[in-house]
Amino acid sequence: MKQDIQEILFSEEVLTKRIKELADKISNDYKGKDLVVVGILKGSVLFAAELIKNISIHCEIDFMAVSSYGNSTETSGVVRILKDLDNNIEGKDILVVEDIVDTGVTLTYLLKYLEARKANSIEIVALLNKQARRVSNLDVRYVGFEVPDGFIVGYGIDYAEKYRNLPFIGILKPEVYEK
Ligand code: IMP
Ligand code: MG
């Protein structure tokens, strides 16, 4: 598995340190609010787990699953809801937890979908941001790290459902997906 990685971008130590910083900021910003952390499956699970461990105020946890990629490395532009929220979010302060924002197509669609539910507020926290590829005008409130345009895997992020269990984040060797 590790031999397929071209370059390690963020070690586990660097990730946990940065996620703690994000959690501290979120805990402060959401003091007195009705925070619901919404993890987007499956890519955000490791990030969401580390984040909520470090959030020091009350919060609910919910999950959604959407599909946009299939097994390809390019976004299809078609977003399907595979799993919806379990609980009503009316009047609550929603923090959507995403692994990586690339074109922004997925989250733009998802936000529109959630906005119809009358939450008090909806913000996004993304572990990684690939700004170079953005096509939509998306406001990402909290970003862990900026990343270059390459295919990223690890720490929950996959290529064809693999590499999610790597404890670090790295760039996948192009020969792995250009086969
Ligand atoms: P977007 O709609 O183009 O912003 O794509 C968002 C989703 O595509 C993310 O939630 C990821 O699941 C996936 N994605 C985007 N870039 C990468 C990458 O470099 N590696 C793995 N998955 C990615
Ligand atoms: Mg995703």
Automatic annotation (TrEMBL):
This protein's record includes keyword Transcription regulation: no
Example of a GO cellular component annotation carried by this entry: cytosol
Principal location listed in the UniProt entry: cytoplasm
GO BP annotations, alphabetical order: GMP salvage; guanine salvage; hypoxanthine metabolic process; IMP salvage; purine ribonucleoside salvage
Catalytically driven reaction(s): GMP + diphosphate = guanine + 5-phospho-alpha-D-ribose 1-diphosphate; IMP + diphosphate = hypoxanthine + 5-phospho-alpha-D-ribose 1-diphosphate
Family: Belongs to the purine/pyrimidine phosphoribosyltransferase family.
InterPro entries named in the record: HGPRT (IPR050408), Hxn_phspho_trans (IPR005904), PRTase-like (IPR029057), PRTase_dom (IPR000836)
SUPFAM superfamilies noted in UniProt: PRTase-like
Cofactors, names only: Mg(2+)
Key words, A-Z: Cytoplasm, Glycosyltransferase, Magnesium, Metal-binding, Nucleotide-binding, Purine salvage, Transferase
GO molecular function: guanine phosphoribosyltransferase activity; hypoxanthine phosphoribosyltransferase activity; magnesium ion binding; nucleotide binding
Metabolic or biological pathway: Purine metabolism; IMP biosynthesis via salvage pathway; IMP from hypoxanthine: step 1/1; Purine metabolism; GMP biosynthesis via salvage pathway; GMP from guanine: step 1/1
Cell location: Cytoplasm
Organism: Clostridium chromiireducens
Start and end residues of each Phosphoribosyltransferase domain: 15-159
Enzyme class label: transferase
Higher taxonomy: Bacteria, Bacillati, Bacillota, Clostridia, Eubacteriales
Function in brief: Purine salvage pathway enzyme that catalyzes the transfer of the ribosyl-5-phosphate group from 5-phospho-alpha-D-ribose 1-diphosphate (PRPP) to the N9 position of the 6-oxopurines hypoxanthine and guanine to form the corresponding ribonucleotides IMP (inosine 5'-monophosphate) and GMP (guanosine 5'-monophosphate), with the release of PPi.
Protein name as it appears in the record: Hypoxanthine phosphoribosyltransferase
Listed EC numbers: 2.4.2.8
